[in-house]
Fold Topology modulation protein.
Amino acid sequence: VYRAFKRMMQYRNKTRPDMGEGCEERIDLNFLKWIWDYPNSKRPDILKKLEQLSEDKKVIILKSPNEVQRFLDKF
């Protein structure tokens, strides 16, 4: 939730670099609720599906920006 709020403030009334032209940053109460509920409502099912995929594919779960950067630095 913190990162979503930070991003909202940083790009308020602007287009984020990773979004299409004319798509301004907006966050409403429903989206914040979805972010808040995600760890309990959606994540367990997604992890279960990823576990099934990992039988055939290598699945890597990166949990923080630092982990992403360390992973990318390997290449």
